Amino acid sequence: MKKFSLSLISGSALLALASMLPVHAAVDADAAQALFKKNECSKCHSVDKTKTGPALKKIALKYKGKADGQDKVIKQITTAPKVKTEDGTEEEHKVINSKDPVALKNLADWILSQ
Question: Which of 32, 40, 76, 85 could, after both became Cys, cross-link 110 (CB 3.0–4.6 A)?
Fold first, then answer.
């Protein structure tokens, strides 16, 4: 009985630790950067400098710690909403040329990891 209890406690501890690991896989930075480049996102965005659009670091900071951050980024890059540029004008945000949800999530995660 004692051996069974010890196994049960060990198994519970292992399960608890496993539940703290991130649910999603690691970001494929090369694939995200390729999609970013292919869609000419760098015309308006830079990792750390503000261009016509905000720096990716600024976007990542905006959504840091928010459970819906990934969803909000994906919505922004797939629905062509009106956005206000740094000079105050409004324009439609360009839509990413991909319908692959894995690629879109990877790109969003890469943006949020900056």
Answer: 32
CB 60 within 8 A of CB 112: yes
In sequence order, the β-bridge partners of residue 91 are 83
Integer Cα distance of 70 and 104 in angstroms:
9
Mean pLDDT by 10 residues, the chain (114 residues): 53 47 74 98 96 96 96 97 92 96 98 98
Phi/psi at 17 (nearest 5 deg)? -65, -40
> What angle separates helix 29-38 from helix 101-112, to the nearest 10 degrees?
100
Structure tokens at 58: 């600024």
Cα–Cα dist 82/80, whole Å: 7
In the prediction, which pLDDT does 6 show? 47
CB atoms within 10 A of CB 113: 12
CA 82 to chain centre: 20
52 contacts 85 by C-beta, under 8 angstroms: yes
Fill in the amino acid letter for 91. Answer: E
Structure-block tokens of residue 38: 């292919």
